[in-house]
Amino acid sequence: MGAAGIWCMRVVGILQARVTPTRVLLVLLAAFLLFSGLGLHDGHDWGCDYAMYLLAAKNLLSGAPYSYQIPVLTFEFPHGANFVLHTPSVGYPLLLAGGLALFGLDFVALKLVNLVFWCFGVLGFYLQARKRFTPAVAVVGAAALLSLHSMFMFKQLLLSDVPAAALLAVALWLFDSWERDRSLGRLTLLALLCGFIILMRPVYTLLFPSLILALLLGWWRRGGGLSRPGVALETGLLVAVALLIQAINVHFSSLGNDYLGHGLTIFRETPLKEWVSLKLGLVGNEVVRLNVLLFGSSFISSSHAVLLGLIALGFFPRLSLRRIAFMEIFVLAYLVAIIILSPWGLHNRLTLPLVFPAMIYLFHGLEQSVAWARRLPFVRDWRPERLLLVGSVLVLAVMLQSNVHYMRSNWHFNPDVVLKPDFQQLVAWIRRETVPGEGVFFDKPHPLVLFSDRPVFRVRFDPRGGAVPPEPRLAVLSRPQLGSELHARHLRAGFTRERYANEGFVVLERGP
Q1: In whole angstroms, how far apart are CA 261 and each of 195, 210, 258, 341, 343?
Q2: Are residues 171 and 260 in the same domain?
Q3: DSSP annotation of 316
Q4: Residue 468: which domain range?
Q5: CA gyration radius, the chain
Q6: Whole-angstrom Cα distance, residue 378 to residue 239?
Q7: Within this chain, do residues 390 and 433 fall inside the same structural domain, yes or no?
Q8: One domain for residues 196 and 58
Q9: N or C: which end of the chain has fewer CB within 10 A?
Q10: What does each C-alpha distance from 249 to 211, 262, 279 come to in angstroms?
Q11: In the chain, what's the furthest Cα-to-Cα distance?
C-alpha cells in the first residue's frame, strides 16, 4: 500500500474514532434548533388554546385567581353533547409562565421552548432506540424525527401537544431503563414525569393505568407472586402519584373529565349502528393522520404504505402476553380511547403522541423483515445489524423526500393574525374607549382578552333574538362577518350603531 493509501486509512480511522453516533446526534439537534429557530414567526393565529394558556400563565405570575378573565366557551355537538371549555390544565401554563417572566409576551421566544422540548423528545427516542437496535440506527431515526414537516408547521403554534408528546418519548425510555434495574428512584421519576405530562394534556390520563398494568404483567412474567411486598410498594407509589395529579387537575381544571364525559354522552345518545359506523371510519382516519404526521401528506403513496405496514408489523406481534410492555399498553389504550371517546373525531394534535412509538415500531418491523430476508441465499452472509442500518437509511430517504417536498411548499407559512395592524388598532381603541372590567362581545374572545385586558364574551343569543347576559354595550365583528347571520342577530339584539371601523373590524354599540 502506498503512502497515500496509508494516509487515507489513518484519516478514516480518526473519523471513525471521533464521529460517534452521539456526536452526530448533537450536531443534528443543534442544526434543527438553528434552522427551525430562524424560521419562527412572531404572532399567532386565532386559536383560543394558546391565548387560554397564556392568560392562565399571566394569572399564575400575577397571583390573580387562575380562571381570572379566561372566557368560557361552549361547543355544541350532535345528540345534545355540549363541551364546556374554561380553564386549561396547569402544566403548560407553568412552562409558559417561566417564559413570560423572562421574555414577556414574545411569541418567538415562547415558541422556541417547544422546539427545545422536541429535541428532548428526540433525545429520549435515541436513548430508547440505541438499546433496542444500534446507536447508528437510533441516529437515523432521530434524523427522521427532526425532519418532520408536521413539526415544521407545529413550531409556529403555542400548543401543549408538542412538549407533552416529547416528554412521552422520555417516559418511554425511562420505563425501558427501569425494567433493567428495577430502581425505585427511577420509577418515582417516571411516575412524576407521567404526572406532569397529564397536567399538560389530560388526554394522557391512561399513562398511569398503563404503567400499573405493565408493572403487574412484568412481575407475573418473572414468576413472582403478585402479593409480594415489592409489587405493593411499586403499585402504591404509582396510585399515590396518580391520585395527586388527578387532585391537582380537578383543582385547576375539569377539562379532562369534561372531555371524557361528553364522549360518553355521544355514545349514549347516538344510535348504535350510526355510532359503530362513525368509529370504524375513525380507525382509517387515524392511519391517515399518522401518515400526515410522518410524511407530511394525507395521500398514502406506495412507499408510505410500505412504511405503515412495517409499523404494523413491529406493533401487533408485540401485543402477546409474553412481550407486551408499557409502550404497547399505552398506545393500544390511547388509540381505543381517542377513537371511542373523542367528541371531535381525530386530528393531528391527538395523533402526535403516537409519532415516537411509531418510529420504534417501524424499526422493529424492519428488524423482522431483515430476519426474513436473511433466509435468502444472496443475503445470508450479511450481518443483520448492517442490513438494518441500510434499511433504516432507506426509510430516512423516503421520509426526507416526502417531508422536504411539503416543507418547500409551505416555506412561508405564517398563521399570525393577532399582531397585524388592524387587530392591534382594534385593541388600542377598546383599551381607550372602555374602562377596566367593561366587557365586549367577540367570537374570538381569548386573543382579545390577552391583548386588551378587558373581559370578552363569545356571543350567545336566546330564541327571541336577544343576547344572553352578560350584555356588554359593544360587539366586535370582522369584516367578512358583515351581512352574515351573526351580524343579523347583532342587529336584532340592538347593536345598531357603528362606533369604530378599520380595514379588518367593525365595532357596534347597543342603540338606545
Answers
A1: 21, 20, 5, 8, 9
A2: yes
A3: G
A4: 421-510
A5: 26
A6: 54
A7: no
A8: yes
A9: C
A10: 19, 18, 28
A11: 100
- The single residue listed with the C-alpha cell 409499523 is 311
Same domain, 235 and 376: yes
Q: Do 431 and 367 share a structural domain?
A: no
At 499 the three-state DSSP class reads: strand
Are 261 and 119 part of one and the same domain? yes
Grid-cell match 422540548, residue found: 117
Task: Give the amino acid at 423.
Answer: F
pLDDT in tens, 323-378: 899 999 999 999 888 887 765 555 788 889 999 999 999 999 999 988 887 777 76
Angle (nearest 5°) at CA 91 between 85 and 93:
70
Q: Residue 296: pLDDT band by 50, 70, 90 thresholds?
A: confident
Q: To 10 degrees, the CA torsion angle through 343, 346, 350, 352?
A: 180
Asked if the model's pLDDT at residue 1 lies above 50, the reply is: no
Is 1 within the bounds of a domain?
A: no
Q: What is the mean pLDDT of residues 74-95?
A: 69
* Total of domains in the chain: 2
Cell of 277: 359506523
**Domain shared by 28 and 166, yes or no:** yes
- Reply yes or no: is the peptide bond before residue 163 cis, omega within 30 of 0: no
204 and 223 in contact (C-beta within 8 Å)?
A: no
Do residues 481 and 405 both lie within one domain? no
CA-closest candidate to residue 308, choices 382, 390, 402: 402
User: For a pLDDT cut of 70, what percent of the chain falls above it?
Assistant: 82
